[in-house]
Amino acid sequence: MSKTLSHIDILIRILHIIIMIAFTGAYFTGDNEDLHQVHMMFGYILLISITIRVIWHFLSPRVSNSAPFGIKKRSSMAFNAIKKSFSHANAASIFSKNSIQLFSIGLFQASIVFIFILIPVVVALGYGTEHFTYSLRDLHSFFANLFLALVIVHLSTLVLNSILAKRFQGWTMLKMTLADKKITNYMTLFVLVLIGGFSYFYLGM
């Protein structure tokens, strides 16, 4: 009998929160020279977090009780939801609650896909600006602002979906639980120690 896998666990929840905090910190310290070291730290934390998230995507189904959604799955979900919102069945009621909700769900999933794609791009451009050529700064700023726009779309569709569903849709991501397998909890602790230790030593350099 095959086991039922959840698409989310405590490690994914923690990484989601870390990514949100790191992006917010990086964005609002980007133009402050006094906080440049902090800005770089947040950028590296973004890269560390997304790297762990990708590794966990492939590792968790083998060692844990979760099977996180990847880019391919979310892209398919986004495409199907948006396509369905414009389908012939909904053509006569394009502004109906159902059509709007489907379109919003599609945008929500699409924003996740593009956010994950943009994180390494933004970090790489920031690293290039810092260590190779300052001429990349404008490009780095452009993609950082594009990232912010995607975050706004992500949060806006989350709010809209919550209103239409009459319940907060983000609770699944934010609700913490220790019911996952021990290895998942240990990995979560390891990630927190890793990022905490990295932050401490990086700022102390």
TrEMBL record:
Pfam families for this protein: Ni_hydr_CYTB
GO terms for cellular component: plasma membrane
Compartments (UniProt record): Cell membrane
Membrane topology of the entry: Multi-pass membrane protein
This protein's UniProt keywords: Cell membrane, Membrane, Transmembrane, Transmembrane helix
Chain ranges of the Cytochrome b561 bacterial/Ni-hydrogenase domain: 8-174
Protein name: Cytochrome b/b6 domain-containing protein
